[in-house]
Amino acid sequence: MIDADDYLRTDFPDDYFYYIPWVMASEHRRQIHVGNMTYNDGEKVQIALQDDAMQSIANKVAMIANNDYKILIYNGLLDVIIPSSVTM
Length: 88
What we know:
Elements: H1 19-24, H2 26-31, H3 43-53, H4 58-66
GO molecular function: serine-type carboxypeptidase activity
């Protein structure tokens, strides 16, 4: 398994990373105002947040719900981390 958001995906398609050469082109980098910053795919952030991902926020959701705020919870059907079966 390579993707916790879709357990059916066993490999990335050839065009999955098509955007990287586009982002690296000087003309596009000027257009999106990133200067000479190094491209980052977010893996370091994902690793840093790894321990926080499975922490319960039930008490926070309860506090929000008890104060009459509307709450929308969304998750994917193929999500391994938080499958829809545990949110019903």
